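It is worth pausing here to work through a concrete case rather than discussing structure prediction in the abstract. The textbook approach is simple: state the sequence, then state the predicted structure, then interpret. We follow exactly that order.
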Amino acid sequence: MPDLAAIRDAAALLRGVVHRTPLHPSATFSRLVGAAVHLKCENLQRSGSFKVRGAYVRIQRLGAAERERGVVAASAGNHAQGVALAAAAAGLTATILMPRHAPMAKVMATESYGARVLLQGETYDEAAERAKAWRPRRERATSMPLTTPMSSPGRGRWVWRSRRTYRRWGRWSSRSGAGAW
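Step two, the predicted structure:
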């Protein structure tokens, strides 16, 4: 779990890179739980999800030797797009291993950000195993969404910013999906 200093540092790195996405009230969820529920509209984010936040912070913190070699990641979609966008912004090469049955829209979006996509394995887990085996042979840095400590502050930034913006709310609960990592 990142501390507040790491989240603030990530916020500084992300300034001007990611969009400030809105929170919208949900009448349906509010009614279901008996409390005010607001949804963070990360679908309006660059790359279509919050994943770009963690990927960007991770990639910006790579050392010079790692940057030269580029990055490799495994994803079924959203993390792939975030890594591809973050790598392109840093001028790095990115190779993303995705399962053979990944949605074509996600594959094409990832490629449109400049990443090389390799369709590997029948499932996400198989693609992830191949990415882990692939990385050392090519001496690439890895961007793993939940297992890479440097990506966590980037993901925590939106909670910190939303909490500062909506101080009047007494109770907070935040859940962000992260695939199978």
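Step three, interpretation. The mean pLDDT is 81. The first strand starts at residue 23 and ends at 25.
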